[in-house]
Amino acid sequence: PNFLKALPYLDAHKSIYDVLGNYYKEEELKLSFTFQAKYIGMSPWVAPGTFSMISYLEHKYGVFHIEGGLNKVSKVISELIIKKGGEIFLDTPVKEILFEDKKAIGIKLDNGDIIESDSVIINADFSTAMKNLIPEELRNKYSNKNLEKKKYSCSTFMLYIGVDKIYKNIPHHNIIFAKDYKKNVKKISENKSVGGDFSFYIQNPSVTDSTLAPNGKSSVYVLVPVANNNSEIDWELEKDDFTQLLLDKIEKIGEFKGIRDHIEELKIITPNDWEIDYDVYKGAVFNLSHNIMQMLWFRPHNELEGYKNLFLVGGGTHPGSGLPTIYGSAKIVADLIDKKIG
Ligand SMILES: Cc1cc2nc3c(=O)[nH]c(=O)nc-3n(C[C@H](O)[C@H](O)[C@H](O)COP(=O)(O)OP(=O)(O)OC[C@H]3O[C@@H](n4cnc5c(N)ncnc54)[C@H](O)[C@@H]3O)c2cc1C
Questions:
Q1: Cα(41) to centroid of ligand 1, in Å?
Q2: Is the CB of residue 268 less than 8 Å from the CB of residue 243?
Q3: Number of C-alpha atoms within 13 angstroms, CB side, residue 280?
Q4: Position 295 pLDDT exceeds 90
Q5: Engineering a disulfide at 120: which of 82, 103, 104, 246 sits with its beta carbon 3.0 to 4.6 angstroms away?
Q6: Nearby residues of 188 by Cβ (< 8 Å), 6 or more positions away
Q7: Would strands 218-226 and 155-163 be described as parallel, antiparallel, or unpaired?
Q8: Percentage of the chain with pLDDT > 70?
Q9: Which tens digit of pLDDT belongs to each residue from 18-77?
Q10: Where are the beta strands (DSSP E) in 20-113?
Q11: Closest CA to 271 of 313, 314, 242
């Protein structure tokens, strides 16, 4: 009932760009509030207007930084799990979920060990997990063909740079817009290469947090939204040229001039790497797209359809991608299990 009451205010039938038009006339002002659509991996001309709440929240309440980086949230949760008597096994991939009739009865690990359980919760990337962990005949709605047909978010090309100095005059968050931003977003949505005119985000977090690099040094993180692997771009072939092009653009941003001479460490992650090394389906790091037919009730449910003890959390499930919503999915699943078994 609460949701129905909220529905008229959610503007889900309009795009983010259209909703911004209710507030701003100037094109550049509208565009400056659209980049947040990237957080759900979508074009602001397509993403439901509901998500204009993200840029509102950022500007109204600010953006907070966790000392040491976001990984610290997982670290604290893991400490809590252990304190409460749980066990965590790292570097222990799950090979498959085990079933008896229509009930999950546990998991089999890569090393052959079997762990039996009352409930199974899947946190791996949704479509990869469906494909690899559950036999196709046991997946009602999610055959390989149906997974392929779903809409997926964009991917990202990443540079993680360690430099031997701190860029004190560059802010923590920086968004650099393509000259033709709409065309850039369209190319990504149509699974095309972004070419030479693209938008990107640079984080210079060492101006806020001195724990991220050794004394006097800093870490710089660069994220370029690009097409997911439906694009069939050969990133192994492209990645070195693209890195140089990106560094050329970074060198043009104020104090970053000459950054090449200060690089001590450089790690590149391409959409291909997201898919192969990190098990992200099609490298779509913001997961299933948030178009209306894949949102809310239409998103994979937290209790997998057809099962009473097989649960889903993470960006590809209800309520959606991004850390706050993902923690929301974990809370929903914890409550569901609590209700079932106390
Ligand atoms: C570059 C980048 C920047 C982002 N920035 C933000 C941001 O600023 N704010 C925000 O809210 N979100 C951001 N996101 C999105 C957010 O990080 C993701 O939506 C989120 O991490 C997904 O969480 P998850 O729990 O669904 O999956 P994951 O974080 O991918 O966790 C799944 C885990 O399951 C493990 N796994 C997979 N298969 C198996 C198996 N068979 N056995 C055992 N383990 C397995 C994986 O190794 C992985 O550790 C960003 C994403 C990227 C890539």
A1: 14
A2: yes
A3: 27
A4: no
A5: 104
A6: 43, 154, 194, 225, 226, 227
A7: antiparallel
A8: 100
A9: 999 999 999 999 999 998 898 888 899 999 999 999 999 999 999 899 999 999 999 999
A10: 94-100, 103-109
A11: 242
Q: Which helix (H) or strand (E) holds 267?
A: strand 263-269
Across the chain, mean pLDDT equals 95
Domains and their CATH numbers in the chain? 2-60 (no CATH), 86-150+298-341 (3.50.50.60), 155-283 (no CATH)
12, 292 Cβ separation under 8 angstroms: yes
Cα angle value 253/254/260 (rounded, 5°): 65
Residue 77: count of CB within 10 angstroms of its CB: 13
Identity of the amino acid at 198: F
The finding on whether 154 has its CB within 6 A of some atom of ligand 1 is no
Which residues have C-beta within 8 Å of that of residue 34, sequence separation ≥ 6?
16, 17, 20, 44, 55, 181
pLDDT attached to residue 35: 87
Contacts of 29 (CB under 8 A, 6+ apart): none
CA pair distance 304, 311, nearest whole angstrom: 6
How do residues 248-264 score in pLDDT, each as one tens digit? 999 999 999 999 999 99
How far is the centre of ligand 1, averaged over its atoms, from the C-alpha of 212 (Å)? 20
Ligand 1 close to Cβ of residue 58 (< 6 A): no
Say how many Å lie between the CA of residue 29 and the centre of ligand 1. 31
Cα 185 to Cα 150: distance, rounded to the nearest angstrom: 20
Report pLDDT for 234.
97
